[in-house]
Design goal:
It is a single chain. This protein has one domain: Fumarylacetoacetate hydrolase, domain 2 (Alpha-Beta Complex). Helices cover 27% and strands 28% of the residues. The protein is built from seven helices and 13 strands. Strands 1, 2, 3, 5, 6, 7, 10 and 11 form an eight-stranded mixed beta sheet that branches. Strands 4-13-12-8-9 form a five-stranded mixed beta sheet, with no helix packed on it.
């Protein structure tokens, strides 16, 4: 059995600082995994948490979480057996229809997801499925604009976790739906750009169900001391493969039972 090595806090700080500087400057960096991988996933999450504390101290506001690696195929590719998570800050939200300037991101891609908005605090690490379902205020279609501060998306599991689960921005649909009568597992998804499909999928691709993925997240966040709170957004995971975007693109995701959401990208980054 592999034993993780305790990583010097100075190394955690150095990796966190490098990722912050990349986000600020818009310049990609080399992978951070060689610095932190000996410490296992705990070290990667320590880097993420260091930056979360930094950003909160600077006045950014936490409004939810994102779940990554909900595809079993991607988990196998990265050699892990569970999803990962990242933080959603208020300034990552883009109102539907508002142009997204590509100078806000470095190497963006898009994913279609089901966003879940929580209607009550979820402080218990032994949260049940029934408790989660009762706590869901509504669901909306979403487009996550994922990004990586790591050059050429050359990521392993330690890189993406440390880099806030490769988060960027997100767009939520404006028509909320109650969960009653909707089977999220069977919600089919088509994402299009320029009239052509760029990604297809369904809710079952998201850890078998977005409910299952969200339950995992709520339990893990309660254990980590950052429980989901009333009003928090959960980006529950990609329903299909991520796709690249270019200046001027209009990306539209249709999710059966939930409706349509659009992300509009500015014609240039200037």
């Amino acid at each position: 059995m592999t034993t993780n090595t305790t990583i010097d806090p100075a190394i955690i700080d150095r990796a966190a600082c490098a990722l912050r500087e990349a986000a600020k400057s818009g310049k990609e960096i080399d992978p951070v995994r060689d610095m932190i991988s000996a410490g296992g996933l705990d070290a990667a999450y320590a880097v993420q948490e260091s930056n979360t504390r930094h950003y909160l101290a600077k006045g950014r506001r936490l409004v939810g979480r994102k779940i990554g690696l909900t595809s079993l195929a991607v988990q196998n590719q990265l050699g892990v057996d569970q999803p990962d998570y990242g933080m959603l800050f208020a300034d990552m939200d883009v109102a539907e229809g508002m142009p997204v300037s590509l100078d806000r991101v470095i190497q963006p891609k898009v994913e279609a997801e089901i966003a879940i908005v929580v209607g009550r605090d979820l402080p218990h690490p032994d949260l049940t499925t029934a408790e989660l379902i009762r706590a869901i205020e509504y669901v909306v279609p979403a487009i996550e604009i994922v990004d990586s501060r790591i050059a050429n998306w050359d990521i392993k599991i330690w890189d993406t976790i440390a880099d806030n689960a490769s988060s960027g921005l997100f767009v939520l649909g404006a028509v909320p739906r109650k969960l009653e009568g909707i089977d999220l597992r069977s919600c089919g998804m088509v994402m299009e750009s320029k009239g052509e499909p760029i990604s297809v999928g369904a809710g079952i691709a998201c850890l078998h169900s977005p409910i299952t993925a969200s339950l995992w997240l709520a339990q893990v966040m309660a254990k980590a001391g950052r429980p989901l709170m009333e009003g928090d957004i959960i980006l529950s995971g990609a329903l299909g493969p991520m796709a690249g975007v270019s200046p001027g693109d209009i990306v539209e995701a249709r999710i059966n039972g939930l409706g349509i959401v659009r992300a509009v990208f500015a014609a240039d980054a200037n």
